[in-house]
Amino acid sequence: MNIYNDYIKEIEERKIQGLHPKPIDDAQLLSEIIAQIKDLDNANREDSLKFFIYNTLPGTTSAAGEKAKFLKEIILGESVVKEITPAFAFELLSHMKGGPSIEVLLDLALGNDEDIAKQAAEVLKTQVFLYEADTDRLKAAYNSGNAIATAILESYAKAEFFTKLPEVAEEIKVVTFIAGEGDISTDLLSPGNQAHSRSDRELHGKCMITPQAQEEIKALQAQHPDASVMLIAEKGTMGVGSSRMSGVNNVALWTGKQASPYVPFVNFAPIVGGTNGISPIFLTTVDVTGGIGLDLKNWVKKVDASGNVVRNESGEPILEEAYSVATGTVLTINTKTKKLYNGDKELIDIAKAFTPQKMEFIKAGGSYAIVFGKKLQTLAAKTLGVEAPAVFAPSKEISHEGQGLTAVEKIFNRNAVGTTPGKVLHAGSDVRVEVNIVGSQDTTGLMTAQELESMAATVISPIVDGAYQSGCHTASVWDKKAQANIPKLMKFMNNFGLITARDPKGVYHSMTDVIHKVLNDITIDEWAIIIGGDSHTRMSKGVAFGADSGTVALALATGEASMPIPESVKVTFKGDMKSYMDFRDVVHATQAQMLKQFGGENVFQGRIIEVHIGTLTADQAFTFTDWTAEMKAKASICISEDDTLIESLEIAKGRIQIMIDKGMDNHNQVLQGLINKANKRIAEIKSGEKPALIPDANAKYYAEVEVDLDQIAEPMIADPDVNNADVSKRYTHDTIRPLSYYGGDKKVDLGFIGSCMVHKGDMKILAQMLKNIEEQQGKVEFKAPLVVAPPTYNIVDELKAEGDWEVLQKYSGFEFNDDAPKGAARTEYENMLYLERPGCNLCMGNQEKAAKGDTVMATSTRLFQGRVVEDSAEKKGESLLSSTPVVVLSTILGRTPSIEEYTAAVDGINLTKFAPSHKLLVK
């Protein structure tokens, strides 16, 4: 009774917060609840029934196992519960998705009671989350002549689990809600500083936008009970920044439909829109939940009588409202005509939101069911020796005769499965691809674990080369929330088959390395496809896609992902970098020059950036690929020279070996396998058998951008432009300014060097600058705090071996201690250097923060409102993004430096250099 009483106590505590009972995932608690149900005189019996029926998580949770076992007893008549008839028990099993429920249904379907077997078979015909152990049982029974097994397989071959679902409604009524003006970051929908609560869906839902916004949504629902609330990014893009399943979950929780009456707080079918559409990674998450994402285009560029774009004093295009989507506007989505209407007035074509594939996701309640359903149909048809009927929309295969392939098209063609043999596919094709590397991060990992449980997955797909569970987003503060959540996550993922940052058995030292850096190291083939639970999953080898926790779970469970082949934008370079410039300035200048070349249009958005980096190793090139998330690109690919790629692979091998030496490899020797694959790839390049990946000379690109290095005359800074009169222009990554713009007198309150945007070279630059400044000024004195978080422990070890860490220690006032990690976030800073634990730190926004209203100069990637720094009552917080030397000098001076101060400070320092390749990087 102790566990049940503890649960009741927790329920009372949650009531105070306005929360319902937390869904049950623990077998021991549910066993007590079942015992109380069986005891007809038990005072807790009525509540226990409600908990059992309505509040137990499905899938492979230990509680689901107990629930399925008890339902089996009821169906077989071994237990009698008047409130749960055998028919109702079957209904409850049908809502449990997979794992133990499928095992029980198979037991019953293949059992000796013919009536029960038929009932179980009817439920099984609706299920799609079957794995090898389940299908092997069906195949064995079929081969033995079992009629029930044959009937189930015949149903699967016809895909009746899909065809018998209700069709998508022709008309969907929506009422608009403006969630914000300008780009809406997923931080607004699921704030990073509330990451600890993501797996508690009801609690986490309380943090979406604001309490006031939540009340307005509820009011709209009351006024329009026949309509769905559509959240809108007015004059912006919805869901920029992070691939955050919790953001879509929150939107669905407030505006969607309940997925099952027997599973609380799991909703689906959210509807979102944006003037400039939906961020690609966020749209994938919307698809996971069977939702709809609309590109509204309700603001358009004003043109004059000659058709020329009219611009304001700043040279920005002036926008005109094509139609209103003001909060409370009632619109109609017609899924047949694929148009958006206001009454009888047609507003816009929305066909892109209703492709045949997306219509399937909507009908099935999400993309998972389609992915698993297609695999199940194929397997069943093969077992029966029949051809599977064409039930699902055929894969879209686009092939242009005589047209070459871009780098991403080559990768997709190599990894595609289920396509027409011998057919060469170009951009726009819908493709299922095998995934080589998968990454799960710690603030979304608990949700990934939940998704794996809900789809009844128990072990990683054997076709995945390697997968890693990070600990970087909870690195800087090891508080009670982290202590409760992270060990549980690491144990689950370690058992599932991932390499984990923390060892559940405590054998190796915990690593809080930034996930993207680790994935960049363990990607040992530039032909690889990588899926990671973070928008900055953008490797400098292979092509990597940031994804929501659900897509990560799907990749782990199946080794596959499905998506269209994106268009590419080719980026090349000319000219020479000035000696005092850092490569980070080239990255910022790429964004600025691209916008200038295309009249303010961001041609990178939603596309692949194919950057012909050539001579930069993977560590340094990652600075570019990482930033492409902020360029709103879908992903990026580095085109490298053979020798440079070999050097990058040798570095990767060394770092993987360190992980092995620390004891991180598992019983499958995944890490050793990666080293073996790297050796094979190096041999292929050296022998000329398979040189480094390059595109074809006659490949077709959406656009081509040539970056002129000669134009980059001073450091470049990405500015959130927090006071721009046009709200939609604030907090974008498109305002790139030269250092001189600030006149050498903009106050800087805090500096941050860290996150995934820095590499080992940045740490060495920091050490060199501090020595320079001491030599020039006789001492190093900080007029603003400087927080430094190296990306990985490997880098710290390398810096120690080379003497640079000793330099940093000399000037620091704080150094992290793994034996005594911080238990609470720092709220105040002194004017000194802080050497923080490797990890995300300030960039993540869920632990350390700058003081409200601060101006922060950072190497980070994030400048969104409230992320690195929140607003104060007096002043807006702002996070300016720049190179490492600019950050260092800004904290020494307590202000932005002049160009003269900057050039003097970096004199003689080995900054990250880049020279365009002189080789023709096309085939």
Helix content: 25-40%
Main sheet, how many strands, which sense, barrel?
7 strands, mixed
Which strand order spans the largest sheet, edge to edge or round the barrel?
8-7-3-1-11-12-13
Global Rg: 28 Å
Kindly estimate the percentage of residues that lie in beta strands according to DSSP: 15-25%
**Classification by helices and strands:** alpha/beta
- Would you count the extended β strands for me? 33
Q: How many H/I helices?
A: 31
Q: Ends: how far apart?
A: 71 Å
Which consecutive residue ranges, at least 5 long each, have pLDDT under 50?
A: none
Shape: globular
Descriptive keywords:
923 residues; alpha/beta; 7-stranded mixed β-sheet; 6-stranded parallel β-sheet
